[in-house]
Amino acid sequence: EVQLVESGGGLVQPGGSLRLSCAASGFSFSSSYMGWFRQAPGKERAFVAAITWSDGSTYYADSVKGRFTISRDNAKNTVYLQMNSLKPEDTAVYYCNALRYSDYSKPLFNSWGQGTQVTVSS
After folding, report:
1. For residue 46, what are the β-bridge partners?
2. Neighbouring residues of 39: CB distance < 8 A, sequence distance ≥ 6
């Protein structure tokens, strides 16, 4: 059974930082592309960042490029999202998932974890 457990969210002021973690199990993590998505109130879930399994190449949505960094630890089956220079428009529930090889902006699994809430507000 695929399990994805996100953590690390919270309330932060504009310009602040947070580091999200996602512990994965139930599939071959080390040979999977992994990514982060987010869903803001009233909006559809959207791609945020991706990391390959082979050479660790990373890809980002334009809205977070230069501010967010995705990384992974295959020994811990965990993927991270370091978020810096946070803006109010980054407020959302953040989710992780494995990604399709054919399109790294699309989730591999239909099931999702509970997500972690990030709120950016003064």
Report:
1. 38
2. 45, 46, 92, 93, 95, 115
